[in-house]
Amino acid sequence: MFIGHNAVAFAAKRVAPRASLGVLMAAAMLVDLIWPILLMLGVEHVRIVPGITRFTPLDFYDYPWTHSLVMGIGWAVLFAGGYWAISHYGRGAIVAGFCVLSHWVLDFIVHRPDLPLVPGGGPKVGLGIWNSPGATVTIEWAMFILAILIYRDATKPRDRTGSIAFWALVILLGLLYLASATGTPPPNVRVLEWMALSGWIVPFWAAWFDRHREATV
C-alpha cells in the first residue's frame, strides 16, 4: 500500500478538523518513515527480488520493529500519547493513533504473507493483493481520490498557497505512485533507502498547506 496510507490521512482531517494534516500524514506514514532509518542502521532488512509479487519487487523479509502488529499497536499508542501531551486535543490523538494502526491493516490487505504479528518470530500474514496489480491499483486510486474529495470538502483555502500547494502534493503523490507501479525497480537497497527516506517531505508539505486552509466541518 502506498497512496492508500496518504488517503487515510486526508480523510481523517474530517474526523479531527483541529489536527494538522501534517500530524495525520505523519501518523499514517509513521512506520514507513521509521523503516528506512532502521534499514540504514542495519536493524531491519529488505531484498529486491523481481517477481516476488506481480506489483512490487521488494522482499520484506525482516521488519518486525516497524511492521509487526504488536509494534504497530505500540507505535499507535506512543504517537497518540505524544500528540495528546502536546496538543491536549483528545479526538485528534485518538484519530492519529488509529491512523498509525491503519498502516498495518492496509498492508495486511496488499502484502504477501510477510507481516509479522510479533517481533522475534512467529507467524507472518498478508492477503497478497499485490499479486493482482489490477485490484491493487483500483483499490488505491479509489481510496486516494475519495479521500482527496473528503479533504477538499472538509477544508477551504485561505489563500493561493492553501490551494496550489495542496493540489501540487496531490499531483506529486499520484505521479510517484504511477512511477512505482510502472517503473523499473531500484538498482540496489541503498538507493531504495534514500528513496524511502524522502517520504519525510510529505508530512511537512501537508502541514504547510494545511495551515493555509481552514476547516469547514
Please write out the topology:
Blueprint (H helix, E strand, L loop, with lengths): L2 H13 L5 H20 L4 E4 L9 E5 L1 H4 L1 H19 L2 H21 L4 E4 L2 E5 L7 H22 E3 L2 H23 L6 H9 L3 H10 L2 E3 L2
Helix pairs in contact: 1-2, 1-5, 1-6, 2-4, 2-5, 2-8, 2-9, 4-5, 7-9
Q: Helical region count?
A: 9
Order of helices and strands: HHEEHHHEEHEHHHE
Globally, the shape reads: globular
Instruction: Report the structural category.
Output: mainly alpha
How many domains? The number is 1
Helix percent reads 55-70%
Please mark out the parts with pLDDT under 50 across 5 or more consecutive residues, or reply none: none
Written overview of the protein:
By secondary structure, this protein is mainly alpha-helical. It has one domain (3-215). Helix content is 65%, strand content 11%. The chain contains 9 helices and 6 strands; from the N terminus they run H-H-E-E-H-H-H-E-E-H-E-H-H-H-E. It has helices at 3-15, 21-40, 64-67, 69-87, 90-110, 133-154, 160-182, 189-197, 201-210, and strands at residues 45-48, 58-62, 115-118, 121-125, 155-157, 213-215. A two-stranded antiparallel sheet has the order 1-2. The protein has a two-stranded antiparallel ribbon with strand order 3-4. A two-stranded antiparallel sheet has the order 5-6. Helix 1 (3-15) runs antiparallel to helix 5 (90-110), helix 2 runs antiparallel to helix 9 and helix 7 packs antiparallel against helix 9 (201-210).
Question: What's this model, at a glance?
Answer:
The mean pLDDT is 96. The chain has helices at residues 3-15, 21-40, 64-67, 69-87, 90-110, 133-154, 160-182, 189-197, 201-210, and strands at residues 45-48, 58-62, 115-118, 121-125, 155-157, 213-215. It is mostly helical and 217 residues long.
